[in-house]
Amino acid sequence: MKRIIAVMLMMPLLAIFANVVGMAGGLLIAVVTLDITPIAYYHQLSGALGLTDWAIGLTKAAIFGVIVAIVGCWRGMRSTNADPAPGVLETVMSWKDTDGWPSWAFSNHDAPRVVSRWGSADRQDDWAKLLLALLMGLRGNVFLYQGEELGLSQAQVPFERLRDPEAIANWPSSLGRDGARTPMPWSADGRFAGFSKVEPWLPMPEEHKRRAVAVQDKDPNSVLECTRQLVALRKTHPALRLGKFVSLKLPSPLLGFERVETGEQIRCLFNLGDKAVRCPMIKEGQPLFVSGRIDQAKGMIGGLTACWLRL
To answer: N or C: which end of the chain has fewer CB within 10 A?
Structure first.
């Protein structure tokens, strides 16, 4: 119990640090809770630990700023090809200003990579860019999981190379978590893609090597370059870092919201379907970022397209 108290006492300091850095510099950190809301988790955890009122107050910032980020989106992260739109909007809208500054992520080391979980292999880059724009448009700190900036897919690890105890114990009914824990590909050259000079703990798929940092660094249309553009925009525009989150009521497969700060309003629109659809809201504003295709004159947004508009 003493260890638990010690950890809980330290966590507000970590939360304050993450919040200050994230709000001031647009630092990207991350995790989305789609099955259990952050507020529900906070109360469950408080009850489980038997925290007194003073302890609850002391750790509230940490619960929302750090623990929620670690918990992750259990339903969304473990499902495949699920429509993320309802869960994302529901969770973001349930977060009140009095709950503290939120942190979001679409991937972590305990869940399948988001581009494989929510997207499809035939349009992997399109999905990767759309999901990055969706994540970075949210209000709060954004965590990017290693390889997410490259659009890496979930690796298929053979049984003899598994390291995850859960996967080994439940194989083949569960492939476990190793597919999201493979080494970071830095270059396409060499046996281990620049990660190490000796064989790493998990194998690296050839598809990951083709998406290595050195390869994408030379491509202006790569997922890596898209990530850099989005990070730069968050740093440049206060509305994306600090602005109020306003949900837009749009029919499926569209998703939209606005970020509003004094003197600035940015509309974020997304088409999660694979075909172009009408979207009158896209007619307004100056495009800041577009991944995919839009036709503002006709009010059309292409399939798997993300668009940020400054109004």
So the answer is: N
